[in-house]
Design brief:
4-stranded mixed sheet; 1 helix; 5-stranded antiparallel sheet; mainly beta; 11 strands
Length: 178
Amino acid sequence: NAGTEADVYISVYGERGDTGSRQLLRSQKSKKFLKGQTDIFAVEAVHLGHLYKIVIGHNGLGSGNGWFLDKVVIKDPTTDLDYTFLCHRWLDQGQDDGSIARELIVTDASTFPGRQELELKREETWAAEKWKFQRGNTLQFYNRLTCGFICLSPDSRVDALGDKKNKYGKVFFMWMCA
């Protein structure tokens, strides 16, 4: 029941103005807004410059009108840029916060230069370091401010007294800068 039969509307906002409310009428699919389906719509508008937000919602009419929206991607044919607006929420009077419209802010690489590179570095770092966080390992953080250790034990205990010596034997050290 994550799809909707209600009329869906979108307003797109850019640095040069907005489209106003536009109903999404003709999808490339025969039945639009079904659960797990990606629908594609053409919306004619003047060039808005760089996009920064959208407002998307529905009229709340029809049986089972609640809708779970994952994301909206707008492809600008003038600049060949993609703008991603993450939602991952319900637009449903009986779910979530009861709202049938959402204001979404752009979250893609066109707004955050270097985001893809940063994400790749994060993934590489986690791949190299995740073994330290496996079950059974004790982690010790050395706090340079107190010159003591903070230990996280496998049994979920935290020793934050700040002892000045390593009393746990085989541990993995991580440095905290205060």
